[in-house]
Description:
By secondary structure, the chain is an alpha/beta fold. The chain has three domains: 3-146 and 269-330, FAD/NAD(P)-binding domain; 160-266, FAD/NAD(P)-binding domain (3-Layer(bba) Sandwich), CATH 3.50.50; 351-457, Enolase-like, domain 1 (2-Layer Sandwich), CATH 3.30.390.30. It has helices at residues 17-28, 44-48, 51-69, 71-75, 84-108, 183-194, 214-227, 316-330, 360-365, 381-386, 414-426, 433-437, 448-457, and strands spanning 8-13, 33-37, 113-115, 118-122, 125-128, 133-141, 145-147, 160-162, 175-179, 198-202, 230-232, 237-243, 246-251, 256-259, 261-264, 268-270, 303-305, 345-347, 353-357, 370-376, 391-398, 404-411. Strands 1, 2, 3, 4, 5, 6 and 17 form a seven-stranded mixed sheet that branches. The chain has a five-stranded parallel sheet with strand order 8-15-9-10-11. Strands 18-19-22-21-20 form a five-stranded antiparallel sheet, with helices on both faces. β18 (345-347) and β19 form a beta hairpin. The mean pLDDT is 95. Bound molecules: flavin-adenine dinucleotide. Flavin-adenine dinucleotide (FAD) is lined by residues 13-19, 36-39, 44-46, 50-51, 54-55, 117-118, 142-144, 163, 184, 271, 274-275, 307-309, 314-317, 319, 346, 348.
Amino acid sequence: MSNEDFDFDLFVIGTGPGGEGAAMQACKGGLRVGVAERYRQIGGGCTHWGTIPSKALRYTITSTMNVLKNPVFRELGIHASPTMEQLRRGTEAIIGKQVSMRQSFYDRNNVPIISGQARFVDENTISIDEGERIRSRSFVIATGARPYHPSDVDFAHPRIFDSDTILQLEEKPSSITIYGAGVVGVEYASMFRNLGIKVNLVNTRSSLLEFLDDEIVDALSYHLRDQGVVIRHNESVDRIEGHDDGVVLHLKSGKQLKTDILLWANGRTGNTDDLGLENVGLEPNGRGQLEVDEKFQTAKSHIYAVGDVIGYPSLASAAYTQGRAAGMHILGRKDGNLRINDIPTGIYTSPEISSVGKTERELTAACVPYEVGQSQFKSLARAQIIGATVGMLKILFHRDTLEVLGVHCFGANASEIIHIGQSVMNSKCHNLEYFTETTFNYPTMAEAYRVAALNGMNRLF
Length: 461
Ligand SMILES: Cc1cc2nc3c(=O)[nH]c(=O)nc-3n(C[C@H](O)[C@H](O)[C@H](O)COP(=O)(O)OP(=O)(O)OC[C@H]3O[C@@H](n4cnc5c(N)ncnc54)[C@H](O)[C@@H]3O)c2cc1C
């Protein structure tokens, strides 16, 4: 078919990081690209109800509470309790800035954004809101995911929330139960506890965030408990009762937890149900997710899928890279140097957690002879100066080649600090000596790498 048969070379569904990455990569490569978005503004769940609002709210809560807990303010007799509305105000401004900046990317690159729900009519045609028809040579599905809603939980009840609706919370509760202790659950547990709210964190598994290094998981559990979060492992929901004065969570173990509100943070479903996939012969799995190959192609080679709609790792960071990779493949290029599988974790609890590469558990299972170098933040001058002494950095390295195999960090700015380790792991000089032979600024948190590397070297014999 000729170019005239198609309105676009690529049509992207969704304007979150996955869709944006694909659209920008493809248009810069010279393709005619169009985009559909059903929400009233671009930016995706990432900008409006996921990453950006939750991180902005976390920042506001942490900085406000740090000021209010400061002994100088206490001495002055300043006691204040900001309302949810006040805490949210900054978030709205940041969302506004993100939307207008991202809109300018599409405008500058002449990528039209078509407002409405996109739905496949046939293999090369989509409809917008069941009306306008658009034909494209290829597609990227970047429709994201939403919180999973079991049918027996009444999400219309004013005291029962999911991770999308919790951001609209009008009044500060005095207690909350969070059901589900994945990344979203532990981040909100940390945030609400910082506000002085009583928190029950109910985990369906035997430990928190099992994909992390064991020592980091232990540290997270210790600090959450130390801050007053009540964690219950190995529990599962029997039923949830919403009342006028609170919510009761009945667990299969027979326990009952009553709090002012409940946040359901257990599972997500890919946004595929209204996409007309049956008209193109694609079938999502039971979680609404699409299967893709290493090029992000679905079973239909001209239809790609990226981001949360394909499941793990369900991170904005990864969605953007996946979108760019799909864009490159559509342009007929290899994604060459894009490190699709080199994805750091960043978990914005208090203390913050971040890691890259292998864990001790994985290295032990693979019989890799590794050694560990550690640096405790409490020994770093910078940490002492800024009062951020809780935390540590841990480098795992091969004891023969000194290759850095993994870096695990918790404490202030962990999600920034980790990138030094990630860069070294990916550079030509990917071994521990980089850290022992390099002069670091002093005093800095980055100095933790030198301290940890020397500590590790000292363990070798
Ligand atoms: C509370 C919370 C905190 C998070 N924190 C982080 C974090 O700190 N770091 C991180 O990396 N990730 C974080 N994430 C995950 C991150 O938000 C997602 O991984 C990311 O948004 C996925 O991007 P996406 O492009 O796949 O989808 P989304 O950002 O969800 O965008 C999908 C877009 O598609 C649109 N759409 C859907 N169907 C259609 C259709 N049929 N037609 C037209 N438009 C459609 C939607 O309206 C939406 O705008 C967090 C998530 C949550 C819920």
